[in-house]
Amino acid sequence: MKNIVVYLGIGLIRIVSWLPLPAAHALGAGLGRLLYFTGVAKTARINIRICFPELDANAQDVLVRSSLIALGKTYAEMGMSWMWPIPKVQKLITRVEGMEYLQGALNDKNGIILIAPHLGNWEVLNHFFRQYLFMTVMYKPAKISALDKFIFKTRKRVDVGLVPADRSGVEALYQLLADKGVVAVLPDQEPGLKSGVFAPFFSQLALTGKLIGELANNTPAYLLCCYAKREPDGSYAVVLKPAEADVRNPDPLVAATALNKSIEDCIRDCPEQYQWGYKRFRRQPEGRSNFYR
Fold first, then answer.
1. Strand pairing partners for 226?
2. Contact of 118 with 48, CB cutoff 8 Å
3. Over residues 125-149, mean pLDDT
4. In the 3-class helix/strand/coil scheme, how is 51-67 assigned residue by residue?
5. 182-185 and 112-115 beta bridge pairing
6. Contacts for 36 with CB less than 8 Å, ≥ 6 apart
7. Cβ atoms within 10 Å of 10's Cβ, excluding its own
8. What angle do CA 198, 202, 204 make, to 5 degrees?
9. How far apart are CA 23 and CA 179, in angstroms?
10. What is the spatial distance between Cα 19 and Cα 36, in angstroms, rounded to a whole number?
11. How many helices (H) and strands (E) in the chain?
12. Contact 223, 213 (CB under 8 A)
């Protein structure tokens, strides 16, 4: 039954990929408006209230609604990013901010750690970076075989290296950086308790992974934050900026705090395009309440 649902979902993504991008965006915007009446909106509302206390209730609600519309558009872009010819997708990237940082990192030849938060359309980044480098990411297989094969195929078509999301994968990342390679890490997903530390994120404690800080502290790799934000005309601007220097700090808390500050700086550029529907503050230090109950 699960495989049937997956195949139906893949079929729907393929159908949407046949639409012109403005039509797909209109469909996604409609989906986003529907999400306003779901639990995703409830989570987004809580997160935005925590992270933007300076906004009044009306402004917070406007941000919730716009973020859900942006999320719907990201869903509707799956067909484009996963199934369109690669040169066609690359033509949608009409602007790059901070190209000098990428060029400097490539010239340094000390390896690169790409820090890519769930902001804008992160799949578009694969199409951008393949023009300049070969990167490797950690990959956790999906539990449903049909879905796993589909996701694996979409990753490999843009020539991305994959390593398992386990200890062997971490060891592979260290080896790649020792060989001056490029690795990409998602910095804003909640890790296991042993793999993270509670650090401020928009002034609220969030369980933050230690991996990026450990990689940065043990290698000379360039730390580059990156995201692809959706422009008003439906095209994309890729933004590249150096991460905070203290991400290299040997103290895990200092490093994680600097990492979260780097992510915040990215999010503030286009806050409506961040994944506010994810329960980023789900785990709290002992004695603190669960925000999402």
1. 240
2. no
3. 86
4. HCCCCCHHHHHHHHHHH
5. parallel
6. 64, 65, 68
7. 18
8. 45
9. 44
10. 24
11. 12, 9
12. no
Q: Annotate 170-203 with b (16+ C-beta within 10 A) or e (fewer).
A: bebbeebbeeebbbbbbbbebeeeeebbbbebbe
Q: Is the backbone of residue 236 left (phi > 0), alpha (psi -120 to 50) or beta?
A: beta
The residue to which tokens 């973020």 are assigned: 67
Point out which residues pair with 207 in neighbouring strands.
198
Query: What would the mean pLDDT of 31-56 be, rounded to a whole number?
Result: 96
Residues paired with residue 200 on neighbouring β-strands, in sequence order:
205
- Token digits of residue 278: 């994810």
- CB under 8 Å to 169, separation ≥6 — which residues? 138, 139, 163
Whether the predicted model's global pTM rises above the 0.85 cut: yes
Kind of pairing, strands 236-242 and 222-230?
Answer: antiparallel
Beta pairing, strands 204-209 & 93-97: unpaired
Find residue 213's DSSP bridge partners. Answer: none
Q: What is the pLDDT of residue 11?
A: 86
Tens-place pLDDT, residues 228-247: 999 999 999 999 999 999 99
What digits encode the pLDDT tens for the residues 99-123?
Answer: 999 999 999 999 999 999 999 999 9
- Tell me the CA distances in angstroms from 33 to 13, 126, 185, one per residue in order: 19, 28, 31
